[in-house]
Design goal:
It is a single chain. The protein is mainly alpha-helical. It has one domain (2-200). It has 6 helices and no strands. The longest helix has 27 residues, at 148-174. The N and C termini lie close together (10 Å). InterPro entries: DUF998. The chain crosses the membrane at residues 6-25, 79-101, 122-140, 152-172, 184-200. Keywords: Membrane, Transmembrane, Transmembrane helix.
Length: 201
């Protein structure tokens, strides 16, 4: 039963963050999901600076770490699976740091604060870990844990997330649509995490 609930954490985390970002946005007057980053909900000086980390980052970090630990403990897991689990654990740790160290209220400031630089580094870890995790699953040795369709699905997720990330870079430069493409890029990865969670249950 314990293994069932730890395997479920990947799916629960996706549902949690979806609801959490929406709820936090409701407490941020005129918050724009299309143009504003999710991290702006917890930015220094924002109306939801204290709410957002406690609603999103801190509980999510625990869920990610538990799920990643679960993956590393699978009895039939290969080294590739173990690395996948470690990456998900680091994803959780990065999520915690991104919440504890807020970004600047203006994401386009030319001189970011030290807290913002730490936040940005943690954010990069968050994005990169869930971009690499599906790759390691896709190249893992044959086992009952990984079916051919899930390997193909994992690679497709990586390609789609990279596409949206490229769109995010462009949106950031023109200062329009960055929030949308950040969500599309990250939620694509979270869809993979949810399906992976269901596969392991």
């Amino acid at each position: 039963m314990f293994e069932y609930y730890t395997a479920l954490m990947g799916l629960v985390a996706t549902v949690w963050i979806t609801c959490g970002v929406y709820i936090a946005g409701r407490f941020y007057p005129n918050y724009d999901h299309f143009n504003q980053f999710c991290s702006e909900l917890g930015a220094a000086g924002s109306p939801t600076q204290k709410l957002s980390p406690w609603l999103n980052n801190y509980p999510l970090s625990v869920m990610f770490v538990i799920f990643g630990w679960h993956v590393t403990q699978l009895p039939e897991a290969s080294i590739a699976f173990y690395i996948t689990g470690v990456l998900i654990v680091f994803h959780g740790i990065g999520t915690w740091f991104a919440g504890y160290f807020p970004m600047d209220k203006d994401p386009y400031t030319p001189t970011p604060s030290r807290h913002c630089l730490i936040h940005s580094t943690a954010g990069s870890v968050v994005m990169l870990t869930l971009l690499l995790a599906p790759v390691f699953v896709a190249i893992s040795p044959d086992s009952e844990l990984v079916t051919p369709w899930f390997r193909v699905f994992s690679i497709l997720i990586v390609l789609i997330s990279m596409f949206f990330t490229a769109k995010l870079v462009n949106a950031f430069q023109i200062k329009r649509g960055a929030g949308l493409y950040q969500r599309l890029s990250y939620w694509t990865q979270l869809i993979w995490l949810s399906v992976f969670s269901l596969v392991l249950m």
